[in-house]
Amino acid sequence: MKKGDEIVSPIRMTDDGNDYVVFELKTTHLYLLYAILAIFCAGYLSKVSLLMAVGVGLFIFYLFLISPQYWALNRKIRRAAKKAFVETSGSKWSFSNPCRIRINKRFL
After folding, report:
1. What long-range pairs does 102-106 form, CB within 8 A, spacing at least 24?
2. Fewer CB within 10 A of the end CB, N or C, for the chain?
3. What distance, in Å, lies between the first and last C-alpha atoms of the chain?
4. Angle, nearest 10°, between helix axes 49-65 and 27-46?
5. C-alpha dihedral over 69, 72, 76, 81, to 10 degrees?
6. Amino acid 63: pLDDT
7. pTM (predicted TM-score)
8. Which residues pair with 89 in a beta bridge?
9. CA 83 to CA 65: how far, in whole Å?
């Protein structure tokens, strides 16, 4: 993964050294989505069309650039959960203890 991709990617994949792969969801991307929605809502409530347009533009950017990466991980998790054990830990809201998903390499 290139350095620039690391910034945009909402998921960090690591190998735990055994037969498992650990996917760590970055909490910043969740809060980024809420900030985008807050910008749109602020524009809508204050009737400022420029602010609404910025919010919609950022949301479309998020929808096409970041969301497909979540969808790809979701497919992997569902496929692995049907065949084997998937372990989750952490919280999607926490910066110090982010959500981690541990899957056996054979089932990816």
Report:
1. 102/16, 102/20, 102/21, 102/22, 102/23, 103/20, 103/21, 103/23, 103/76, 103/77, 104/19, 104/20, 104/21, 104/80, 105/19, 105/20, 105/21, 106/19
2. N
3. 18
4. 150
5. 90
6. 92
7. 0.77
8. 100
9. 29
**Count of beta carbons in the 10 Å neighbourhood of residue 10:** 20
State both tokens at 30.
């969740």
Q: What is the pLDDT of residues 18-77, one digit of tens each?
A: 788 898 988 998 999 999 999 999 999 999 999 999 999 999 999 998 888 888 888 888
pLDDT band of 3, cuts 50, 70, 90: low
Q: What is the DSSP string of the chain?
A: --HHHHHH-SEEEEE-SSSEEEEEE-HHHHHHHHHHHHHHHHHHHHT-HHHHHHHHHHHHHHHHHTHHHHHHHHHHHHHHHHHS-EEEESBTT-SSSB-EEEEEGGG-
The residue written with tokens 């350095």 in the block is 3
What is the token pair recorded at 1?
Answer: 């993964």
**pLDDT score at 15:** 78
